[in-house]
Amino acid sequence: MKAKICGIKDDKTLKYILEHSYPPDYIGFICNYPKSKRFVEIEKLKYLTSIDKKNVQFVAVLVNPSNEILEKIKNFNFDLYQLYDTSPQKTKMIISNYKKKIITALTIKNKNDVGKYKDYLNISDIFLFDGKGYEKSIGFEHSLIKDLPNNIEKMIAGDIKYNDNLDNFQKITNIIDLSGSLETENIKDLKKIDIFLKNLRELNAKD
């Protein structure tokens, strides 16, 4: 199982994750959502994404992005754009203009919300199923996605604890996405990050 750590906003944390013995596959940065305490201003974002990412992929987390923000970050060192509240038509336009891989983020409350992934088939590379709270790490019933087809790349987020039993998630998703649970008093906690990454390593070593 792969992992994404989201909401990075300082170089100390970023470098710790990148230099970890078992780094995640993806690191996410909040680019245009100032309501989030993890939001990164544009100049800081430029600096953070210029740091050598080694083999980790950098993800721009964007909520219905304007052309202005897309233009500002187009030359930053992002591999994927994670798009919330973005229509299939606009997603296609972003792919056409910026040539990035796409994570379509769907906020889930019920089965109908899950079914919206079908609108993005053949458009998105990864489907993120998240809680309704955006920055608040609100969970959802993960069993809602257990019957999704195996031929789509699935990621889940929303109130997943850094020390949860990851075996439970391996049955339903390809990628696990953590942010808030890796924090203590709203600051990324390096000890929690270390525990999570080592637990994931142990899980994958079983396979």
Q: Which architecture name does CATH use?
A: Alpha-Beta Barrel
Read across the widest sheet, the strand sequence of neighbours is 1-2-3-4-5-6-7-8
What is the overall silhouette?
globular
Please give the domain count.
Answer: 1
Radius of gyration: 16 Å
Write the SSE topology.
Blueprint: E1 2-6, H1 11-18, E2 26-30, H2 42-48, E3 57-63, H3 67-73, E4 80-84, H4 88-98, E5 101-107, H5 111-115, E6 126-130, E7 154-156, H6 167-170, E8 175-178, E9 183-184, E10 187-188, H7 190-206
Parallel strand pairs: 1-2, 1-8, 2-3, 3-4, 4-5, 5-6, 6-7, 7-8
Antiparallel strand pairs: 9-10
Verbal overview:
This protein is an alpha/beta fold and 207 residues long. It has a single domain, classed as TIM Barrel (Alpha-Beta Barrel), CATH 3.20.20.70. Helix content is 29%, strand content 22%. An eight-stranded parallel beta barrel has the order 1-2-3-4-5-6-7-8. It has a two-stranded antiparallel sheet with strand order 9-10. The radius of gyration is 16 Å and the shape is globular. The mean pLDDT is 93.
